[in-house]
Structure formats: structure tokens, C-alpha cells
Amino acid sequence: MFRWLTGILLAVISTAALAAVKGEEVQYQAGDVVLKGYLAYDDAIKGKRPGILVVHEWWGHNNYARMRARTLAELGYTALAVDMYGDGKTADHPDTAKQFMSEVAQNLPLMKARFKAARKLLAKHKTVDNDRLGAIGYCFGGAVVLNMARTGEKLAGVVSFHGSLGTSEPARYGKVKAQVLVLNGADDQFVTAEQIEAFKKEMENAGAKYRFINYPGAKHSFTNPDADVYGPKFNMPLA
To answer: Is residue 136 situated within a structural domain?
Structure first.
């Protein structure tokens, strides 16, 4: 059941062989807002392949999100590091990051519109099999991809890495079409045991195909090497 999602997981944690990865700066639009993303694919691979949307942390569309897109491209996917804030903007302080994130996280229609705009761009790319689209997200991005799964977005699967589990619109029965994989740090102080149990109950009540993995000893942002810098700098309980 989770073979497809496992492939994505292995892709983002593995060291890829050398590949002819091509990166493209892309612009797309949702409403009046111009969004600036980064699309990566292996130009040496012939034919169409799965497409993956990569949704950034609360810091915004930064080099970490782009690196994840390139890693996926090296392993045979076409990946789009999306922009959920507009104009490709990023934050360099938690207060700014919280402001940017809240503008989207508290406005589900806005979140949907910006995600769908990115999905449309990826699906139209010459290398992408638009019947095999998925999404992964980190921190804020994990919450985004889970919310898109809840709303029935046409995706084969979603993977949330140390993402927020709460939502203003819980999934209804039969609504979740994507397979769902959640990778959580057991020592993540931003995700409580109560939230985990509520999420599991929500998925079960919705009839979703999901898997939840808790990594012992792992804290928030455990996939991002820069967490070792951000944590002490801003006195945040990160990996």
C-alpha cells in the first residue's frame, strides 16, 4: 500500500548518484499574487515520471526546499519547490516566519489556491505524468500537504515531515484520496500526544490509508541540518 510513499521517503533521505539535473526558476500566479518556485528534473531521463510538490518550512521558499527538490530530481522525479508566501519571500527570524505562516495557515481557501496553482504548473511540465503526482512538506509545509489530502486534492500520496497535525476542517469520510505518511519526532515539543491521537482518530474516521511513524529522540525540524543553527540562535527546541 505504501510502496509509492516509501519511494519518496527513501529519495529524500538518500544520497543520489550523479544525474543531469536541470533547475528552472518558475513563476506562476494565484489570484493577484505572483509566486516564485524552483523546478528540478533529470534531463537525461527519457519519458514522463512522477511529479512531487515540495512545500517549504515556515521560513519560506529557501535553499533547503530547493535542495530537497534537487534530491528528488536526482532520483528520477520531477520536483517543484513551491512558494506559499508569494514573491519567493523568506524569513530570517521566527517572528517574521510566524507572521508569514499565519497569513496562509489561517486561510484555508488561500492555501488551497496557492497549492493548486503550483500543482497545475507541475502537472503541465513536459516530463511529468500527471496521473502520478504527490506532495511532501516540512514543518508548515507538512501541515499544508495534510490539509490538501483532507480536502480531497488529487494526489497519489503525501508525506509530512515534522508537520503540524491540527486543522480547522477535519477530513470527512471518503474524502481523503491520497495515501498519507506522517513522519514525526517523538520529542517534538510542537506536537503533543493529544494532537497525535486526535489526528489518528481523524484519519481512521475518514477511512484514510495512512501511516504514522514516531522517531524516538527526534525533535522538531529533524530533517533540516540548519536546525542545529536555528535552535541555539533563537532558543527553539529543534533537532
So the answer is: yes
Is residue 123 a part of any domain in this protein?
yes
Taking the C-alpha atoms of residue 115 and residue 83, their distance in angstroms, rounded to an integer, is 9
CA pair distance 50, 164, nearest whole angstrom: 26
* 209-225 pLDDT per residue, tens: 999 999 999 999 999 99
Residues 6+ apart with CB under 8 A from 105: 111, 140, 143, 164
Our count of domains for the chain comes to: 1
Tell me, yes or no, whether 239 lies in a domain.
no
pLDDT band at residue 20 using 50, 70 and 90 as cut-offs:
confident
Does 185 fall in a domain? yes
pLDDT, tens digit, 9 for 90 and up, residues 36-90: 999 999 999 999 999 999 999 999 999 999 999 999 999 999 999 999 999 999 9
Q: Characterize 154-186 residue by residue with b for buried, 16 or more Cβ atoms within 10 angstroms of its Cβ, and e for exposed.
A: ebbbbbbbbbbbebeeebeeebbebbbbbbbbe
Alpha-carbon distances, residue 182 vs 139, 215, 222, 232 (angstroms): 11, 11, 13, 26
Kindly report the CATH number assigned to the domain that includes residue 58: 3.40.50.1820
Q: Which three cell numbers stand for residue 215?
A: 522517531
The pLDDT tens digits for 146-199 are 999 999 999 999 999 999 999 999 999 999 999 999 999 999 999 999 999 999
Q: Which domain holds residue 71?
A: 3-12+21-234
